[in-house]
Amino acid sequence: MRLKKFCLVAFIAFIANFSFAQEGIPIYSDYLTDNYYLIHPSMAGVANCAKVRLTARQQWFGLDDAPSLQTISMNGKIGDSPVGVGGILFNDSNGFHSTVGGYATFAYHLMFSRNEIDLNMLSFGLSAGFLQYKLDETSWLAPGEFDQAVAGIEQSATNFNIDFGFSYQFLDFYAHFTAKNILENEGINFNRQGFEFKNLRTYLFSTGYTFSKFGSEWSYEPSIMYMYRDATEESSIDVNAKVYKEMDFGKVWGGLSYRRSLDGAEFVDGSGVSSQKLQYITPFIGVDYNEFMFAYTYSYQANTISFNTGGFHQITLGYNFNCKREKYECNCPAIN
User: What are the Cα distances from residue 299, in Å, to 24, 62, 65, 282, 303?
Assistant: First the structure.
């Protein structure tokens, strides 16, 4: 009986997580570590260097089968043309459930500048990708035991989807908009149960500005990101602050991000019912050393009720190659 209860709880947890896992790469704060391409396809090939980025995220150290995420991405411009291309591979695992997938990206950059000094550019990007979902039930039953609700095998299903977005860069200002998972998906049948997740559309809007005094080694970049999930009508906002310092070998930078859900969740508090909103506090630090980049991110969930008091650790490694000279006289770290 306890085994059946365990299987039921595990399956319910899987279903609760599944609707979000289908959305592809989870949206954390790793875009702040010089990795906007992970969430905005229009950023493919926008920089004066081709970029490779590798991320590894681990949640709740010390717990078995805790959520983890690994991504590898590469993007760059094709010669001197306005065309950018990119690709992303990722693996997202959480307990008995995991998602692996990949995206290929095409981007086009329209220049409105009268010369190469003043940055005034509108970019469009389209990513098409596949996602394979897996549910591993091989350890759910003891040898010789039978449960009609548990198949006892590793099940998988594959979907295809598209992301589309655009970016606008004007001198030290930028704005990005992306619609993720534009296509509707068919229901996925695990354990002979159909689960419909047709509308997985998520909308992202990011904007920011980089400030710096003339001749100063320091620059400051406040930014925000707004996220809205169409099906559940959930939304959240990131408020970010980032600072850069120019060095002989490259650049040192760091900052702080605060994410807050705009929708509350209710929970039982003693004899009454209380409500809380998801909150993440994320400090991050990084260094650009010649062609290499290294960053560390730590996220703390600042809620009264949470699953674990441990944080979320993430490391980002990067390499820039095929670099061209810096064209624009602007404080635009994502481009120059």
Answer: 20, 16, 19, 4, 12
Q: Nearest-CA neighbor of 34 among 49, 48, 53?
A: 53
The segments of the chain whose pLDDT lies below 70 read 1-23, 60-65, 116, 137-153, 186-197, 264-275, 303-310
User: What is the dihedral angle through the alpha carbons of 239, 285, 54, 24, rounded to the nearest 10 degrees?
Assistant: -20
| The pLDDT of residue 14 | 39
The token duo for 108 is 């086009």
User: How confident is the model at residue 241, as a pLDDT?
Assistant: 98
Residue 24 confidence (pLDDT)? 78
Tell me what pLDDT residue 16 has: 39
d(CA 109, CA 328) in angstroms, rounded, equals 15
Predicted local distance difference test score (pLDDT) of residue 136: 72
Q: Would you state the pLDDT for residue 149?
A: 62
User: Which pLDDT does position 184 carry in this prediction?
Assistant: 83
